[in-house]
Amino acid sequence: MIPSRRLLALLLAGLVPVIIGAATPSLRWTIWVYVLLLIGFVALDWFMTPKPKLLEVARINEPKLSIGEQNLITLAVHNQSPRTLDIQIRDEFPVEFPSDTLILKTKVEPESVQEISYHVRPLRRGDYRFGNINLRYTSTFGTFLRQTKIAFDELVKVYPNVLDVRKYDMLARKGMLFELGLRTARVFGSGTEFERLREYTPDDEFRSINWKASARRNKLIAAEYETERSQYVVAVIDTGRLMRPTINDIAKLDYAINASLMLGYVAMLKGDHIGMLSFADHVGRFLQPRRGKAQFYQMLEMLYNLPSQPVEADYGRAISYLGLKNKRRSLIVIFTDLSTMDTAKPLIQHMARLAKTHLALCVVMSDPNLVGYAGKAAYSSTDVYERAVAEMVLDERRVVLDTLNQAGVHTIDVPANKLTVSVINKYLEFKGRGLI
């Protein structure tokens, strides 16, 4: 029981009979009367206030929370008492999760259920645990606050961004993928899967004419083809030290994993085989490319607790291993980062070799701090030094990317918040042009 301001005010009011009793000994009985009345009032309030056993609380949330997103947590309070209760709730969410609120307040009518929500934003993948739910509500006459703790221990897993996957599904059903910044993948006239017949136009290739259909209709008819399905897409994720720094509190590795997961999901919907490989100084996890939703869910489970390593990445070992395990021509998307030209030489060497047999795409994230320093106005010698170093690093980065392009490797260098959309659009572009 926690005394309320009202009870404190009543206790202060008791100074009046105390003063009167001190000044007039014959009226000292008023002190005892007031004390007994106050005790009786509080006792009556205790008796009439609903007991904690009349309150039930349930925590409602997704079994898989998404990293870096505002995940909705809902608390449902069932008031089985005959009185309206003003309730404060403090949920014991994991201390690692930033939250938009700490104390929730709600009013619950008699014999009813009231839902109240808050959001948490996990910054790391892995296993976490929610604790108890603490309730505090005002007594019937407002003389105290009653507090209770409801045991609701719960294990939750923080996954890569599965909310983006659900959003993609919803917008795809509505035909509104443009809201995500995605472009259409269907480019007629390329590929090998027949799509439809239509009237021939001067812009069409001569080989697209369907002579049998043209003979039947007595005019030139062109056949349109869509890009074939059942291609191979493999996400190769660098988990070395260059992927450990954070951007907006989220590690670069997590941005890469989110993009890999969405790439796998879109490719799975397109009928392609999807696979993944992680590596640092040695090969970590490998998933042989296959088709179907079960493959996507297996990829999700392999990625949800994939750790980073404080070591240099061995590109040669990873690409050699992939070459042994996957001999069919595939789209190989390598998520990594660049530092200097010297450290990037192994990447250039091995990706150039990879590009001879596969469609290779190197994906890196631009560092907003470097871009900021490079464009920063110089007001001191320190500013001049920082700007010079940032511009030098950016120049080396451009040289590395240009060298990769000249070796036949496609590249993406975008801010972290645009990584997923850029990767998906590049995949759709490749698929539309029939490059895989």
From TrEMBL:
The keyword Nucleotide-binding does not apply. Pfam families: DUF58. Residues 197-368 form the DUF58 domain. Coiled coil: none annotated. The chain crosses the membrane at residues 31-49. InterPro entries: DUF58 (IPR002881). Keywords: Membrane, Transmembrane, Transmembrane helix. This is DUF58 domain-containing protein. It comes from Herpetosiphon gulosus. The lineage of its organism: Bacteria, Bacillati, Chloroflexota, Chloroflexia, Herpetosiphonales.
